Each structure stands twice: as structure tokens, then as C-alpha cells.
């Protein structure tokens, strides 16, 4: 059952969307990032799966964190945010439609104001990494149907994300976006458009409230909020800003503590998402993935 605070946060997010003013949601991943987001007056926050994987578990964003780990992190962050609404990343829903039902129920009980689901093949990858794959559109429509049925009230928003731009092209991504909107998603998220023209085209051709993901070093241009507002975007999430800057500060201080130079810290600095995830072992995990994929082929 939703608490009074949860009901208020969900109502507030609905009201913000109805105002048709761009909602800027910083990426939060732990208690202090949530507290600071609230105390600096932000109207919403985004639970970043990449940030939880890296900061919470020392893992890259390649599908290694479980639904339980994410929903419990969401619960803690909702508590820290108070009545500031939380938009929460739930990756692919962590399985078949019945798994999606359990995921949505867990996030719903944790008190999030919106849950984001995506159409990647599991295990997913960060939206700004290469080699992504997507499921058939009809398969994700089943995911959406399960999510919409499972939520306890209509004020828990369902955000539908498509990653089709990279493997299938922008036309396919826009087609999927409109289908997901017709299937009942409250907000649509076309991941990783390349260039301002693609961002503008999505704004023109997708008939739904839109979310855009602004990733430091990613493939999408970091357009100013005023321009995104003009293009009709409803929400701009900044999932990596806080974590990347905190990582920089930690690297610099660690090098000071062991007597090495700022140049040594600079050598570790990530220029893009892949560099960042290599700080938490992505190269090693992908080697394991390749190893067992090769073993599977040899058995076939």
C-alpha cells in the first residue's frame, strides 16, 4: 500500500509533467547523492542503474545487478529524498512478463514515482556502449502490459525506453517509440540519438511526453535545457554527472595520499562511458562473457 509520502511524490511528478516545463533529474545512486539533490532544491531525481552498479557494487552496467538489489536501493533513496519524486531505472524488468510483474511490485512498494523499462535483450548494456541488442517490439509490448497491470495506481508512471537506435536505426526507434506510447506507456525514452538533428526529429515525430538521457562523454549532444524545452522534451536525466565528478575527486585525493601526481590521477580519468566502466572491471567481465560464449559454441 502506498504511503502518504509516496502518493504525494507521485502526484507531484504528474503535476510537473502537466506544466510542460522541462524536469531536470540528476542521477542519484546512494544516500548522500539523494540527500544533496533534495537539499539543493531539485524537483525530481533519477535512480541510475549504472551509478548503483558502479558505486553500490563496484560493477559495470552490463546487467550484473539484480532486481532485488535495485529495488532495495530504490527504497533507501526514496527515504532520503522524502517527497522529491524518484524516477527509477529497472533495466529490462529482469525477465519474462511474470518477472516484470514482481519487479514493478517491488519498485512500487519501494515508493518510486516512475519506473523505467527498456527493450534490450538481457543482459542489457549501458545505453551508450556498443553491441546492444533489442527484443522484438511485440515482446516488449508484453513487458509493458505486465508493468501497467502490476502497478498499484495510475500515478506510478511507466517510462518505456527503446535502444533500437544503435542496432536498427532511428526510423525503427521512432516507430517503436510510438508503438510503446500507443501501448500505454506514460513517457517515452529513445536512447542514444546521435546529433542535434536526431534529438529534434524525435521531438517532432514521437507523440508522447519524452525523456532524454544526457550522458557525459556519450553519443547524445548535451543540449541546453532551454533548447530541450523548445523541442518539447518533458524530462532530462543526467545519470552520470554526480558520480563522474565524485570519481574525479576521489582519484585526485587518492593520488595525493599515496604521493603520486595529478598526472597519475588524470591517467585514470574516463573520457566516455566505456572508460568509466573499465574502472569497475568491465573489460574483465566481458572477457568472461566471451570465454563462455566460445565454450557454448564449441558444445553446439
Automatic annotation (TrEMBL):
Pfam entry (one): PEP_mutase
Question: What name goes with this protein?
Answer: Carboxyvinyl-carboxyphosphonate phosphorylmutase
Q: Which Gene3D superfamilies match?
A: Phosphoenolpyruvate-binding domains (3.20.20.60)
Give any GO molecular function from the UniProt entry: oxo-acid-lyase activity
Which PANTHER family does UniProt cross-reference here? CARBOXYVINYL-CARBOXYPHOSPHONATE PHOSPHORYLMUTASE, CHLOROPLASTIC (PTHR42905:SF5), PHOSPHOENOLPYRUVATE CARBOXYLASE (PTHR42905)
Amino acid at each position: 500500500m502506498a504511503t502518504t509520502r509516496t502518493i504525494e511524490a507521485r502526484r507531484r511528478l504528474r503535476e510537473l509533467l502537466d506544466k510542460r516545463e522541462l524536469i531536470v533529474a540528476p542521477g542519484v545512486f546512494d544516500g548522500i547523492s539523494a540527500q544533496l539533490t533534495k537539499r539543493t532544491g531539485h524537483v525530481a531525481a533519477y535512480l541510475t542503474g549504472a551509478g548503483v552498479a558502479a558505486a553500490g557494487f563496484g560493477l559495470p552496467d552490463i546487467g550484473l545487478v539484480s532486481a532485488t538489489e535495485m529495488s532495495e536501493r530504490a527504497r533507501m533513496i526514496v527515504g532520503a529524498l522524502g517527497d522529491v519524486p524518484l524516477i527509477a531505472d529497472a533495466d529490462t524488468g529482469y525477465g519474462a512478463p511474470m518477472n516484470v510483474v514482481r519487479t514493478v511490485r517491488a519498485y512500487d512498494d519501494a515508493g518510486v514515482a516512475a519506473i523505467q523499462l527498456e527493450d534490450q535483450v538481457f543482459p542489457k548494456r549501458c545505453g551508450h556502449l556498443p553491441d546492444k541488442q533489442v527484443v522484438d517490439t511485440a515482446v516488449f509490448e508484453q513487458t509493458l502490459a505486465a508493468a501497467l497491470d502490476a502497478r498499484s495506481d495510475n500515478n506510478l508512471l511507466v517510462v518505456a525506453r527503446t535502444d533500437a537506435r544503435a542496432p536498427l536505426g532511428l526510423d525503427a526507434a521512432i516507430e517503436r517509440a510510438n508503438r510503446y506510447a500507443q501501448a500505454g506507456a506514460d513517457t517515452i525514452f529513445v536512447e542514444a540519438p546521435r546529433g542535434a538533428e536526431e534529438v529534434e526529429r524525435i521531438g517532432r515525430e514521437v507523440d508522447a511526453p519524452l525523456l532524454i538521457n544526457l550522458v557525459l562523454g556519450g553519443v547524445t549532444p548535451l543540449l541546453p535545457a532551454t533548447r530541450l524545452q523548445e523541442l518539447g522534451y518533458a524530462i532530462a536525466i543526467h545519470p552520470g554527472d554526480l558520480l563522474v565528478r565524485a570519481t574525479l575527486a576521489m582519484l585526485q585525493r587518492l593520488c595525493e595520499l599515496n604521493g603520486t601526481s595529478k598526472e597519475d590521477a588524470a591517467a585514470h580519468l574516463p573520457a566516455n562511458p566505456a572508460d568509466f566502466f573499465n574502472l569497475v572491471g568491465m573489460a574483465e567481465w566481458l572477457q568472461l562473457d566471451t570465454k563462455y560464449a566460445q565454450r557454448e559454441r564449441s558444445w553446439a
